[in-house]
Amino acid sequence: MNGTSCLNSFLRDELKAKLEKVVDRFNKHSGPLTTVLVRDACFKQIYRRGDYRIVIYNIPGNLGATQYAGRFVYVLRGYAEPDHGVLTSEQASKCLARAKEDLLAIGTGADVLDTYRKNFGDITDDPDIGPAHFLNCNGGGELPYERTLTLLVHEVTHLDTKGNCLYTTYGSHQVCFALSNDLPSSSIATVAELFDSDDPYLQKLSKAQRLYLFQFNESNRGPAALFNELNAYTAGLQVSAGILKTKGTHGMLDKGGHPEPQMLPLVMLWTVKYLDEMRAENPDLYSSSFGPSTDNHKSVETLLAHGEDAYRDWNAQLAAHKLSAIPSEKALWQQYLDARKELEHPQS
Ligand SMILES: [Zn+2]
């Protein structure tokens, strides 16, 4: 790859420390872990920590770099995921081609991959950086291939997002926001009931809540990350529903024969709760940034409408296979619907 610089060591260490924290949160072993450098290719470094693989890389040619204070800053990206073996570039591009074919057959998500290739052609087939690493290509991963197809579309939807505009699988392929710097932290959306529940699904969501509303929020405090997740979970769930519709349940159920509980109801609840809380706390700020006549308002409505469609479609496909969401997920969905009603027609 031409014009690609080595990793800036200060930023690398900063990102590495963040990813190590994420690994430690999910790691099953007790006792402290150490991070070992496995491969250093200058523009990308690969580490191992416990059962996880940490990859940190530069975007080639500074694509995606943001202009800050009049000069370019490095944009480092990285991820941590359970280590599921090494792919060659050839295997990676084959696996991506298979995924694209499957997405075309399912009828949603293929454009997400096309857009990524358009934006990041140089790295698309890189086995560590390109999207193939999300897929269970060689069968060595924890999740079945089908479920990783959903994960792929979720993650690449994030990567296709540019600046203030989310990449969408529908419409003109973008939904934009203009968010000022004085918006409250997304932690105001906290669903307190999650923290002391003994329901396993809600406990898992409680972990996610800590991560999404607090930990991921240290640098970006406003609601942008919420909207971003809502959009990505919608795109992913469209794929899951499409798999059930066109290919059946293979790879989509757990060992007990149940569908994986969904994140989307909670993400939608967070979004609406955020707006409800903000309106109650600071009506003026709410009406100037999210009031009915604002573009932000329209964008939120669009995201929620498509999220609702995706979730209803998923449930319809479950019903067609004589399956259903677990009661605590249904209850969360109801909580979302109530919160949305409250947002549209405030009681007070
Ligand atoms: Zn996400």
Structural features, described:
The protein is α+β, with helices and mostly antiparallel strands. It folds into two domains: 1-83, no CATH class; 165-344, no CATH class. It is built from ten helices and eight strands. The chain has helices at residues 9-26, 89-106, 110-119, 145-160, 200-214, 224-246, 264-281, 283-290, 295-320, 327-344; strands spanning 35-40, 44-49, 52-58, 67-68, 71-72, 76-82, 165-167, 174-176. The strands form three sheets. The protein has a four-stranded antiparallel sheet, with helices on one face. Strands 4-5 form a two-stranded antiparallel sheet. Helix 6 runs antiparallel to helix 7 (264-281). The longest helix has 26 residues, at 295-320. The model is unreliable at 61-71 (pLDDT under 50). Zinc ion is lined by residues 154, 158, 229, 232.
Q: How many domain units?
A: 2
Broad structural category: alpha+beta
Beta-strand portion reads 5-15%
Mean pLDDT: 89
Helical region count? 10
Task: Offer a concise description of the structure.
The protein has 10 helices and 8 strands. It has 348 residues and is of the alpha+beta class.
